[in-house]
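[stage:ingest] chain + small molecule (guanosine-5'-triphosphate)
[stage:ingest] validated
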Amino acid sequence: MSHLAGRVVAVHGRHFLVETADGRYDCVTRGKKGGIACGDRVEIKPTSADCGVIEKNLPRDNLLYRSDRFHTKLLAANVDQVFVVTAAVPTPDPGLLDRCLVACAAAGIPAAIVVNKADLPETAAWLDRLLAYEALGYPVIALAARQDVAPLSERLAGKTAILVGASGVGKSTLINALVPAAEIATQDISEALDTGKHTTTHTRLYHLSGGGALIDSPGMQEFALGHLGQADIQAAFPEFRPLIGQCRFYNCRHLKEPGCAILAAVEDGRIARQRWRGYEALCRELDQAAHDYR
Ligand SMILES: Nc1nc2c(ncn2[C@@H]2O[C@H](COP(=O)(O)OP(=O)(O)OP(=O)(O)O)[C@@H](O)[C@H]2O)c(=O)[nH]1
Ligand SMILES: [Mg+2]
Ligand SMILES: [Zn+2]
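[stage:predict] done
[stage:export] tokens:
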């Protein structure tokens, strides 16, 4: 059989579900290739009616991933839009949100913030905190997955988008509402059955009836960004941009240097201290990695 072009729609360990014009194939890679993500475009060689081998990974437009010193975790490839899903309950972690946004900037993928569970009274205070993000240029979309997903669906047409965020914010519930055929198990059902949480464990792409695709991803607690350099980190903070070049030292890292324009802005409140702390933490991790490497 000749080769078929397809797209990876699910990753299960070393198995990749690949969608082609000729149907879906459960594929493995030849040898120790690895490095294949949900959303990747590939060429496969079918070995039976529904199994195959990935022969070639086609060039990517982009790749969203996490990495620490030991592991690289590919989230998805060829994504047009990232929605960082948050909710006021369970208590949100602004540091995680910042890291998600940094990862998107580094991958060159537009990011928007979704606030799910708008039906909960705690949401108002969380939306207040997110006004600062709106001012930075990130769209903030508030909705309740169980009531009305129109505010999100109108932003999806024709695109490949991914939902990322902490566990329990409602990513899978949103996808079930947007893609009725998805039928992903969410936490509610399992709570009733008392069989533990129905947390998502695999990344998976679902097609939208109006064209486009939406990727569900497992909830994350942390977002390590070991692959980023100083320039990537700095460029991912839009509020720094107008001040770059105004520090006393041309190679200022904005950590504790005298005459730093960014530290001055943190001091007088033009830049949120919490955001700068996130920047500082990323710089420290970078230094630590360089130190360990020596
Ligand atoms: N009140 C309220 N609860 C919601 C809403 N959307 C989802 N939930 C609940 O939030 C819980 C978690 O939903 P999931 O969709 O499983 O969350 P998830 O983000 O996919 O979680 P992981 O797969 O672990 O990453 C479930 O009990 C949902 O019923 C909403 O709009 N309002
Ligand atoms: Mg889920
Ligand atoms: Zn500086």
